[in-house]
Design a protein that fits this description.
The chain is built from nine helices and no strands. The protein is mostly helical.
Length: 185
Amino acid sequence: MEGFLAAFMLVFCAEMGDKTQLIVMAFTARYSWRPVMAAVLAATLANHGLAVLLGVLLGGLLPETEMRIIGSIAFIVFGVLTLRGDDDEEEEVRQSRSPFWTVALTFFLGEMGDKTQLAVLTIAAEQGTWLPVLAGSTTAMMIADGLGVLLGAKLSRHVSPERMKKISAFVFIFCGVAGLISILA
């Protein structure tokens, strides 16, 4: 129970206002909340599962900088692609693509090397147990990002799709640039 509570409290607090919570808000403004939350759950289980495994097995040896660079660049690329204009053929391709995979991959990369993933890794290393830490961190992520989904859904009712596209692109690019700056600082 100690591992669950430690992971829950630390991850919930760390996720509030985090870039991945902002990303969930942006995706919810573009897609239905169901595939967004399903993708967040899948990505969190994969990402935090990896952190817990590494934390328990390796006691905290994880190449943080490289993952943060890759994640930051991915955000910038996704933001630029979001800004790019769609022609009819691109729109057909985008509509045939599942939002689940777009959200899951973006969220997974966004969490790689993030403070929440590193917190989970550290708690798992300290606790030496995987299930309570994974359950606590996943529960915290779902609640914190669920709040982001609610806000994103509300925004989509009051903001035009074109403006939301620009806002989403800005959020992705901002998170990517901020991530690269934090690595260099």
